[in-house]
Design goal:
This protein is an all-alpha fold. The chain is built from 10 helices and no strands.
Length: about 200
């Protein structure tokens, strides 16, 4: 059986453009970075950059889509699972993997929140987080249990940034953040339904 043609050069170029753009967006901000600067940093012509991406937003959307793919896969998996504590905890473990695989994007989002709200990726990120939080919480749970479930996700987001200033092994920090999120969901489950 023949294997499909592989175009490593094109995908490598696309990845390089994404990496350099994200680096420049982090250094100078999204609004202050031009396609010309991205092309210069890559040492290519603006026309060569246009071959892959027409706008800065196209670059950012492609980065977001690539890094969000594991979250989309997680949502699809979770929708097919029973709504048990074990499923919710596995969701958080998988979400932790996805988050740590997308640290540069989340750093960009943190530093450019106003811009992200204006771009199409803002709504797509928000819809994914909403879907995850809906799968973690039970509608008939007490209000405090629902807050714990939603806080578990936010603890993971905030933890990525809060732990940057704390000394220690990155994997130990990641494990500590996940432990807090898992505890919050377990506490929510233990508190039971609203009476």
């Amino acid at each position: 059986m023949a294997t499909p043609p592989h175009h490593p050069r094109r995908s490598d170029t696309r990845r390089r453009i994404q990496d350099v753009a994200l680096e420049l967006f982090a250094e100078h901000g999204y609004e202050k970075t031009s396609l010309r600067e991205i092309a210069e940093r890559l040492d290519v012509t603006k026309a060569a950059l246009y071959y892959h991406f027409k706008t800065k937003e196209d670059i950012l959307v492609s980065i977001s889509e690539d890094l969000a793919r594991p979250v989309d896969e997680l949502i699809a998996w979770a929708e097919s699972q029973p709504r048990t504590l074990a499923t919710k905890q596995e969701m958080l473990r998988r979400y932790s993997d996805a988050l740590w695989g997308a640290v540069p994007l989340f750093r960009f989002i943190q530093e450019n929140q106003a811009t992200v709200r204006e771009l199409s990726i803002g709504e797509s990120i928000k819809s994914r987080i909403t879907a995850l939080s809906e799968m973690l919480k039970e509608p008939d749970s007490s209000l405090s249990a629902q807050v714990r479930c939603m806080t578990a996700l936010f603890a993971m987001h905030a933890g990525m940034f809060a732990m940057q200033g704390i000394e220690g092994d990155p994997e130990e920090k990641r494990a500590a953040i996940l432990e807090v999120a898992l505890d919050l969901v377990a506490q929510a489950e233990a508190s039971g339904v609203a009476g």
